[in-house]
Amino acid sequence: MLTTNQKGAIAEAEIAAAAVRIGAVVLRPIAEGRRYDLVLDLGPKLLRVQCKWAALEGDVVVVRTRTCRHTPSGYVRTTYCAQEVDGVAAYCGALDRCFWLPIADVADQTMVHLRLTPAANHQRRRLKWAEQYSFGAIAQLGERSAGSRKVEGSSPSSSTPAREPLL
Known about the structure:
Order of helices and strands: HEEEEEEEEHEE
Structural class: alpha+beta
Number of domains: 1
Number of helices: 2
């Protein structure tokens, strides 16, 4: 049986690996204390990512998007907002799949259910389909416009004065 910390470490590693596979550069904060676990460099865009372990319950992937920590004044439960993260990435070990949930879809929610199959009661409204949140879709956020980029600046490089070292 995995501990909560082990699940979190596995989720973060799997999400980082999935990000590398789709061409993102993965950055990790040196110090703790931010609301995000990773930053994904998609070229023109940087995304702050909170990583979560997701459980499979029947035909539903359950992503708990709240935090809970013990403080001297008791338990503090919080959710995420757009000022803190750009999205939640979730890894479901039972499916060996990662999902990307933009913060606009999960802000201030404590839990998100991603359906793999239609609901038994035929409900269709307000469902979140797992396929709509496939992790590969995150790569589209960083797609560059077509065409070549122009390099600007002095040429040759020796035409600019040397700068003093920073250290």
